[in-house]
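Sample pair:
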Amino acid sequence: MTTNYIYVFDAYGTLFDVHSAVGRFQADIGAHAVAMSDMWRIKQLEYTWTRTLMGEYRDFRVLTAEALDYAAGRFGGISAALREKLLSAYERLDAYPDAVPALRSLKERGARTAILSNGTPQMLRTAVESAGFSDVIDHVLSVDAAQKYKTAQETYALVEQALHTSRNAISFQSSNRWDIAGATKFGFRTVWINRAGHADEYLDLPPHAVVKSLDNLLTL
């Protein structure tokens, strides 16, 4: 494995399990918990794309809360107390089991590591600290600096600007195929973490590699 690249990771869905917030309160939510969690995520992403397309920016914490309100409303609503618990849990999502070992192995091999995420700077600081990533992530970058969301090309440019490097020195990892397409378009080497075995999309913007786990990065 080469360590010539700087390894940049998407956060939500790649390092952090976005469904772990609802998972902690599944008994309180009831039989529709999984469907509500799916809807929460779908609307959260939809709001980022819609806002960016219209040239309007609201930070990720606000959009996450708005998406939760919509999703909860579709399934009969939740109490104010449970709403606050879910939003607090989203700030401290569970890391995927393969995340820390893979990041630590990259660091041991001399690689630099970073996060590029839609999350706000504060959300990301809290998530990184809660997950125990502080000693395995060198840089945490938020699209807040660009006032746009991925896949706007300006968001990927933040990596070059912040890390003082060229795009061909970056290996970008995401579980979100749309994010991989955007990063590929920008010129990063991209690795799609396809844990769920989804069918490929954006065939004109293929990743450099497709793996089922972050562990597989060490073999590329």
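The mean pLDDT is 96.
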